[in-house]
Amino acid sequence: MQFNTWLKWSACVVTLAGALCTGLRIDPANIYLLNAGAVLYLTWGYRIREWNLVAINSGLLIIYLYGLYLS
Question: What distance in Å separates the CA atoms of residue 38 and residue 2, rounded to the nearest whole number?
């Protein structure tokens, strides 16, 4: 399996786990998982040169880090 494929699916699983934790109100695990997912998607977007993914996940990472700071 190519590294980019592994990175993309890892980001997907981690982000879904973070969303599940948010739905179940499991704090602060949701914030940690969503941060990790954003970092993985940000890395993947940079590697495949999809600048819209880089922009979206950079913004999400800032929002999630702010949430981590508040928790």
Answer: 20
